TrEMBL record:
<keyword id="KW-0813">Transport</keyword>
<keyword id="KW-0067">ATP-binding</keyword>
<dbReference type="InterPro" id="IPR003593">
    <property type="entry name" value="AAA+_ATPase"/>
</dbReference>
<keyword id="KW-1003">Cell membrane</keyword>
<protein>
    <submittedName>
        <fullName>Energy-coupling factor transporter ATP-binding protein EcfA2</fullName>
    </submittedName>
</protein>
<keyword id="KW-0547">Nucleotide-binding</keyword>
<dbReference type="GO" id="GO:0005524">
    <property type="term" value="F:ATP binding"/>
</dbReference>
<dbReference type="InterPro" id="IPR017871">
    <property type="entry name" value="ABC_transporter-like_CS"/>
</dbReference>
<comment type="similarity">
    <text>Belongs to the ABC transporter superfamily.</text>
</comment>
<dbReference type="InterPro" id="IPR015856">
    <property type="entry name" value="ABC_transpr_CbiO/EcfA_su"/>
</dbReference>
<keyword id="KW-1278">Translocase</keyword>
<dbReference type="InterPro" id="IPR050095">
    <property type="entry name" value="ECF_ABC_transporter_ATP-bd"/>
</dbReference>
<keyword id="KW-0472">Membrane</keyword>
<dbReference type="Pfam" id="PF00005">
    <property type="entry name" value="ABC_tran"/>
</dbReference>
<dbReference type="InterPro" id="IPR003439">
    <property type="entry name" value="ABC_transporter-like_ATP-bd"/>
</dbReference>
<feature type="domain" description="ABC transporter">
    <location>
        <begin position="8"/>
        <end position="233"/>
    </location>
</feature>
<dbReference type="InterPro" id="IPR027417">
    <property type="entry name" value="P-loop_NTPase"/>
</dbReference>
Length: 284
């Protein structure tokens, strides 16, 4: 994470929809957040908890019912949504980049350079005249990511970007995100796969339209909550367990080892960290 410059502030943000009868459906209900330059944030939560609404609101296409969204007009914000087809405008790869880049730069040479660079970064090797309709769902998603990257955004919002990708392409997206956050881009990554939330700086967890956790990944997976209910019911759950979300395989394995008394202090998130912690514990 670079610096600490706040780049987006949400204050008591609400998105409410009219529902059956006189009911109100609260997709977001009083969310306050500050996001910083160069941060990688994972947004997690059960289905219907408000993740995509939060993404849409950050991108700017979902209007507020109340509260304040503070983001400078000078910043370039780009989003990649869950459904790749919903985002494609051009008939060919060339056209898709042309629509995205012409408002940003006049020079055709510059546009070509940005296009080549972005396609290379995501690993899409097709001629520019290739019809978008001939690409698979995963390839269209990579194209959407490439188009978003080509705009060199200050803020990139990814709504389940890897849902249609194979493991190799998923790893590539993680590496790209690591690189661009180091350069100062703020990345907000919505995911159901908590493995993808182990490299980020901060996890924000949503439940019924509210932000119920905002902090380090280690605490999200390992720190048990010491509240009255936990003490009364003699169950101490991490925020992840309390939300009923499936922790990464590495975390599950580490929790089992901890139950057996191994590496009590360790909080590994990735397999290589777990291997190191086990080796350290065995040699201690
Ligand atoms: N345009 C809309 N009109 C009415 N209700 C909506 C609208 N958009 C979202 N909702 C409702 O708001 C709540 C939050 O939806 P949202 O899509 O943000 O959740 P989510 O966490 O992204 O879910 P998922 O993981 O299934 O994508 C849900 O109850 C949803 O039905």
């Amino acid at each position: 994470m670079q610096g600490n410059l706040p780049i987006i502030t949400l204050e008591d943000v609400r998105v409410h929809y009219a529902s059956e009868g006189s009911q109100v459906r609260k997709a977001l209900d009083g969310v306050s957040l500050t996001l910083h330059q160069g941060e990688w944030i994972s947004i997690v939560g059960a289905n219907g908890s408000g993740k995509s609404t939060l993404a849409g609101l950050l991108i700017g296409f979902i209007p507020l019912s109340g509260g304040v969204r503070d983001i400078s007009d000078e910043l370039t914000v780009r989003g990649v949504l869950q459904q790749p087809d919903a985002q494609v405008l051009g008939d060919t790869i060339e056209e898709e980049f042309h629509f995205a880049l012409s408002p940003l730069m006049e020079s055709v040479e510059e546009q070509l350079e940005y296009r080549q660079d972005a396609l290379h970064t995501v690993g899409l090797q097709y001629p520019p005249e290739k019809a978008v309709s001939q690409l698979s769902g995963g390839q269209k998603q990579l194209l959407n990511i490439a188009v978003a990257l080509a705009a060199k955004p200050d803020i990139l919002i990814l709504d389940e970007p890897t849902a249609m990708l194979d493991p190799e392409a998923r790893d590539r997206i993680e590496t790209i995100v690591q690189k661009i956050t180091q350069r100062g881009t703020t990345v907000i990554w919505i995911t159901h796969h908590l493995e993808e939330a182990t490299l980020c700086d901060r996890i924000i967890a949503m439940e019924r339209g509210r932000c119920v956790y905002n902090g380090a990944p280690e605490s999200f997976f390992y720190e048990t909550e010491l509240n009255e209910k936990a003490t009364r019911e003699k169950v101490q759950l991490s925020p992840c367990q309390r939300l009923g979300l499936d922790p990464p395989f590495t975390v599950k394995t580490a929790l089992l080892l901890k139950q057996k008394g191994m590496m009590p202090e360790a909080m590994p998130l990735r397999p290589e960290q777990l291997a190191k912690e086990v080796a350290r514990w065995r040699s201690s």
